[in-house]
Flavodoxin (Mycolicibacterium mageritense), 150 residues
Amino acid sequence: MPRLLIVHHTPSPYTQAMFEAVLAGATDPEIEGVEVVRRPALKVAPSDMLEADGYLLGSPANLGYISGALKHAFDVCYYPCLDTTRGRPYGLYLHGNEGTEGAERAVDTITTGLGWAKVAEYVVVSGKPGKSELQACWELGATVAAQLMN
């Protein structure tokens, strides 16, 4: 069964709400045959990344960059995943109160190096996520999970 790994850092109520919406989309009953695994970014091991067939990444944008937790996940997993995870689909959601461009650029750079395939537009939210932003998170989760359906 294909596995979708959600790597997240959810230190605030806003990032938690976004995570829950992404998870709800990824686990929608219409998406069949996909196992969804959740890991806090600080607890991700290379084996988690290697065993996954696709990825959803979630982070606050701290000072214009991805969280240290998500950066840590990439740091410990980058080289073990470098040649074996190419072509795998991924999506990203970010929450930031100020500029998120640096965080988006960081994920673009890292995932390009890994050879991952961006399969949905990033969901970027500033301030409190409203109904439309949470719907976009749900759609992100469902879109990436659907990429893994047989």
